[in-house]
Amino acid sequence: MAQYKAPLRDMQFVLHDVLNVEQHYASIPVFAETNRELVDSILEAGAQFCENELSPINRSGDEEGCQFNDGEVSTPKGFKEAYKKFVELGFGALSAPVEHGGQGLPPSLGVVMSEMMGTSNWSWGMYPGLSHGAINTLEAHGDAHQKEVYLTKLISGEWTGTMCLTESHAGSDLGIIRTKAEPQADGSYKITGTKIFISAGEHDMADNIIHIVLARLPDAPKGTKGISLFIVPKFLPTADGGVGERNGVKCGSIEHKMGIKASATCVMNFDGATGYLIGPPNKGLNCMFTFMNTARIGTAIQGVAAAEGSFQGALEYARDRTAMRSLTGAKNPEKEADLIIVHPAVRQLLLTQKVFAEGGRALVYWLSSYNDIVQGSADAEAKKAADDMMSLLTPIAKAFLTEVGYEAANHGVQVYGGHGFIREWGMEQIVRDTRIALLYEGTTQIQALDLLGRKVLQTQGAMLRNFTKIIHKFCQANEGNADMAQFVNPLAQLNKEWGDVTMRIGMKAMANYDEAGAAAVDYLMYSGYVTLAYLWALMAQTAQQKLAAGEGDAAFYKSKVQAAQFYFKKILPRTRTHVEVIDGGAETLMQMTADGFAF
After folding, report:
1. I want to staple 471 with a disulfide (CB 3.0 to 4.6 A). Which of 204, 323, 495, 497 is the partner?
2. pLDDT digits (tens, 9 = 90+) for 277-308
3. Cβ–Cβ under 8 Å, residues 324 and 337
4. Cα-based distances in Å from 115 to 86, 111, 440, 462, 592
5. Beta strand pairing call for 243-246 and 235-237
6. Is 308 considered catalytic here?
7. Which tens digit of pLDDT belongs to each residue from 30-62?
8. Measured on CA atoms in the order 545, 547, 548, 551, is the torsion positive or negative?
9. Closest CA to 133 of 182, 183, 72, 199
């Protein structure tokens, strides 16, 4: 099984050459001291931790899984020790506020760290990963006392956090949840109900677990307008901030899953558990969106991690495995057969993995740079513009990157052939672990409706135009660049078509809302391919400039341009199919009766 190696060179290329993060951080006073030297030192320390501590326990954690015994969950061997070291190194506190014990670094650096953890050991990474959302929610909506008691412990890593939304009868439809919150004389609430699919809901890695729970007050209106948000700790804090008596919340069972077996996915029973209201009554869903958006960006990273991890394993195998002769003559005549990396079909698989991993990395890092502005800027107008861009890009990143990440993971199995189907090589684990990413934090279909319905059509295209203007200006700026024509010309055409396709869907949807539903997934995938095309064009431009200036590793920059050429010639044409399906409309989907599905 291939061991993870952090792709530091590519990370540095995206951060420093493409996004110019040092200048970006300098433009936000609170992050102004985050220079290149600091960024690179964090990358190197994170790489050492992930390569040496997390990667070695990835397969063993999958084999052992979590163990459940009368409400208690034991994590696999090595998980607790790795978490202890994670806390000691301060990685969980990287992007947290200084006033509560964090290091105050930009959120985008935390995202880079999350990518390395996710690729080396996604199951393990979910335990601290859930805490980030709880931290962001409390920071944004908690009162001073809640921040003092809970936020500091979550940031230090002494305690971990969860988000408790889903109930057995209510998946993504949160408006029908039944968990109750009854007010008490002391200002607390008694929380009663059952939540399912709660990642890291119970484990043995931290002293306390802080559940962020959606529930209904007795007089709450129906639907999503009647949901409130609560803090429900596993152990009630003592006056001095320690761990006190056990609260009325207990793990009823853990799920037996297809993948991420070392991550405890729990059924959590709240039996009159003491909880504390976060934010205003009946505004819990608004507050929870802070957590959910954080989690969705985190899930987008899983798509990148799947593509990167599978690519690393497949590339290593393709450079070693021999089979058949090259169609253009023997490349290794001294051997019985040629390395499989010489075959076009294998290269198609490897390059697809590569462009999704590296293009996805660029998208997630770029998206997180807007989060830096939202979290750190004092400029209200800049924060609003950044927040709008994040609103548009988050569903694209979450759904598109997990879809193509899953595709890339399957390509890893294919490169290995029969060996890919065998557990010891690690490729099939990536497929199993990644499949959930297309489901949790909102399925691809839910994200597609969010993108097309809420972010595009409900804003009359304003959010989309914010992005297409960026692409338009990029294409205009490169009109006279002969080397960039191969990227700019098709990108400019697609950018215009994006608006035209949106208009056609909108016109149909005015007469029949199902037209939007029928188009949504293909619209999201189309949007994803165009978004990655912009980023690959940007990376190609950067690489060309470095080559022209004679800077750095010429072979690296040349490969970047070649990868961009592959993306534009072999991947981007997929947009044609999506447009055809979008224009196919809703009729053929909706005309059959329910009985017609039977056989």
Report:
1. 495
2. 999 999 988 877 765 666 788 899 999 999 99
3. yes
4. 15, 6, 18, 31, 44
5. antiparallel
6. no
7. 999 999 999 999 999 999 999 999 999 999 999
8. positive
9. 199
